[in-house]
Amino acid sequence: MRLLLNKFILGLSTLSALIGLAFLGWILITLFIKGISSFHFNLFLNDLINGGLRNLIVGQLMIAALASVIGIPLGMVAGIYIREYGRGKYAELIRNLSDIMVSAPSIVIGAFVYAVIVVPTGGTSGFAGSIALSIMMIPIVINTTDSMLSLVPKELREAGIALGASKYKVIIDIVIKSAKVGIMTGVLLAFARIVGETAPLLFTSETSNYFSLDMTESFPSLTVSIYDLANEPEKASRDLAWAASFILTVMVLVINLTGRFITRNKG
Amino acid sequence: MEKLFQKISLASASLVLVILLGIFITLFNASKPAIDEFGFNFITDSTWNKEIIIDTPVTKVNEKIPVINEDIIMSNSPVIVDEDAVDSNTKTIFGGFIPIVGTLLSTLIALVFALPIAMGIAVFLAEIAPKHISHTVGIAIELLAAIPSIIFGMWGLYYFAPIVAGLVGGYQVSLLTAGLVLGVMILPFMAAVTRDSMNTTPDVLKESAYALGATKFEVIKDIIFPYSKVGIIGSIILALGRALGETMAVAFLIGSIFSLPSSINSPTISIPVAMANNFGEANGIGESTLFYLALILFVISFTVISFAKFFFLKGHKS
Amino acid sequence: MIMNIKKFSFTYPGAPAPSLQNINLPIEKNKITALIGPSGCGKSTLLRAMNRIHDLYPGNLYDGEIELLNSETNTMENILDIKKENEFIELRQKVGMIFQKPTPFPMSIFDNVAYGLKIAGIKDKSELAEKVETALKGSALWGEVKDRLNESAMGLSGGQQQRLCIARAVAVKPDLLLFDEPTSALDPISTGAIEELLVELKKDISIAIVTHNMQQASRISDYTAFMYLGDLVEFDKTETIFLNPNQKQTEDYITGRFG
């Protein structure tokens, strides 16, 4: 009887795993089928105004890239502070706040940036969108940097100090170098996370039908456009939304897997 | 150079605090007009965008209530502040009850749906699967977590919701479908954190139980779960905190109707969706109301997440 | 004497009682001084006070004096007075440290050994190459690595890594080298090689070594200090400690009555 119950529960558990995998498979297959059927290479050559996705893909990557340029250095340096320099209460507070911010609602961050940037500057901009994404990115990068640095054994730091190196030199030459792979993975995963975000961009960068490199105006965003296209009644729009969804997911998963692959090789 | 580096890193770290305070202050300022106008009753008031005429001898109230169209698959009902009514004769009343309830209920549904499956997956990964399978399936589950939320919205609306509606009836865009897709979204996170908690159980503890003749299920039930109980509960609450703020998937599926759902499978709205749909066109008191909702959402999320962290996830790195 | 420890007491941050009480210990020039004693006796704590590496973790309480010979002025200076960043750096360039776990830096073998030199301001490439070669020869590692100086140090075996750390420390020509159980993580052959190395090194450098391996202490050291529960119980020439100790506690430890 006990054995029967055991087998039953373990069976249920395996079933759950299969359900989880089934959802993943269902979503990926759906994306693939719907995406491929609307796919043609003109999508990469035309802008949204002409039924393509070029400006949206470029725009999304640019917004995410600018967000990374802002968010990654700030996050890393902050992570270094709380792990290497911070003592006691303040560093612990920042660590906790950062951890909370990782799970904070992204649409609220969009509203915040709307109030402090979009309104005073008189309009939406790619720049505002990047700021919103960088605010999301900073806590994520802080977390992974902090974690990865904590894995470096303290003897390594002591050995550097024992040679007469100053603290920041030990951090840069030795500690960060040791944690390099883990930090890089963390950064890649953070990028994969923000490049797929929609809510913070809805009222900060909005989107645009035209190709643009001018981040001071409304700026093309793949994710926001998917939302708009899916809302339009025409079937052509919805097909385009599927094609865009497919491309977005491929992008995100490739970056994600690359990050994991790097760790597996060196870890 | 050393001093400079210290100062710069301290400044960067302090940025987190600055941003957090900035968000609170900004939200509060922007919602002040609505707070002054509606007060705390906002939370329990289920009117939305209702125009009333004030200061007239004739007690006639003009009501504009959005109509529920049963054929709606997808609806963005913008809040249009009637420009003509800027005339001080009328004012528009907003109440946050409906979106607040929608947020809480959809999250609850997500939790109820995801919890057993997530626990099952965690048990599978931690205790049942051999190492390489556990590793591979674990990655697959983490990929599910990496999929952008708007994709869940698309898939949910066009493929998942019709099936659910077919099975249990009701609308395709409803509290139920939104809650279920939300559940699929928080599933991987809950499973991963639970698995990590379970893995902290010392091997010697498990081995002692097996040595006494316990079955795997009994070891899980009597040793592992009690040992990692705190971390598991923490992961559940944390997942809840994240689900509260989810926008895009819910936006596709909840129906965006400002009315209390008559049943679990009727459309309604949540705070993030109300914001997503209306921010563009709202101004004046309407916009301030959206900020008021944002503030409420932020406070609730912050509280729930902090609660999970401090009471359950001490020392755990998410 | 290269170092003179006088009435030295030490308390860790937040600890209720001192970990070291009233230690009086001379470290003789060009000799190997071993610190032995059971776990928790404070020998590592004492060693780590000698290059003030405790100060990485602020809040320590020091009492007494630790004097280091200033080879230029031939006077003894109290290193517990050091407060400024650059004075700490100078101290550590004169008093080096090797740890129990080999700590190769994540860089090439050459860069590892050159690290301390570069910090000291040496930039000239040929000068660096010369000093690196000397240091590696001095730690009996040159023959094994001379053809792969640009490869990562992480590819070396445990024993090689430890000798690399010694070369790295020796390159800056310190007056005193502190070894904290340097062979306890190594196999017997590597241990033997490093013990030989220490005996060679003492010709130019004074050495203090913490070891829980009594046989090692008796093999290589000139002087031995026996510690117990934060006190320095006995200090004398190594033969005396091992063959004819004065204190009963010392004798009990040596003969294995307690460990």
Low-confidence segments of chain A, given as residue ranges, are none
**How many strands, which pairing sense, and closed or not: the largest β-sheet of chain B?**
2 strands, antiparallel
Mean pLDDT of chain B: 84
CATH class of the domain at 98-312 in chain B: Mainly Alpha
Largest interface: A-B, 88 and 90 residues
What global shape of chain B is seen?
A: globular
Q: Helix share of residues of chain A? A: over 70%
The CATH class assignment of chain A is Mainly Alpha
Number of strands of chain A: 0
The biggest beta sheet of chain A reads: none
List unreliable stretches of 5+ residues of chain B: 56-86
CATH architecture of chain A: Orthogonal Bundle
Brief overview, please?
Chain A has nine helices and no strands.
Describe the structure.
The complex is a heterotrimer of chains A (267), B (318) and C (259). By secondary structure, chain A is mainly alpha-helical. Chain A has a single domain, classed as MetI-like fold (Orthogonal Bundle), CATH 1.10.3720.10. Chain A is built from 9 helices and no strands. Chain A is globular and about 70 Å long. Chain B is built from 10 helices and 2 strands; from the N terminus they run H-E-E-H-H-H-H-H-H-H-H-H. Chain B has a domain of 215 residues: MetI-like fold, CATH 1.10.3720.10. Chain C has 259 residues and is of the alpha/beta class. Chain C is globular and about 55 Å long. Chains A and B meet through helix 1, helix 2, helix 3, helix 4 and helix 5 of A and helix 1, helix 2, helix 3, helix 4 and helix 5 of B.
Topology:
The complex is a heterotrimer of chains A (267), B (318) and C (259).
Chain A: H1 2-37, H2 54-85, H3 89-102, H4 106-121, H5 126-150, H6 154-162, H7 167-195, H8 222-231, H9 235-266
Helix pairs in contact in A: 1-9, 2-3, 2-5, 2-7, 3-5, 4-5, 5-7, 6-7, 7-9, 8-9
Chain B: H1 2-38, E1 50-53, E2 90-93, H2 97-128, H3 131-146, H4 149-168, H5 175-199, H6 203-211, H7 216-244, H8 248-253, H9 271-278, H10 285-312
Antiparallel strand pairs in B: 1-2
Helix pairs in contact in B: 1-10, 2-3, 2-5, 2-7, 2-9, 3-5, 4-5, 5-7, 6-7, 7-10, 9-10
Chain C: E1 3-11, E2 20-27, E3 32-36, H1 43-49, E4 61-70, E5 75-78, H2 85-94, E6 95-98, H3 109-119, H4 125-138, H5 142-145, H6 158-171, E7 176-180, H7 188-201, E8 206-210, H8 214-220, E9 223-228, E10 231-237, H9 238-243, H10 248-254
Parallel strand pairs in C: 3-8, 3-9, 6-7, 7-8
Antiparallel strand pairs in C: 1-2, 1-4, 4-5, 9-10
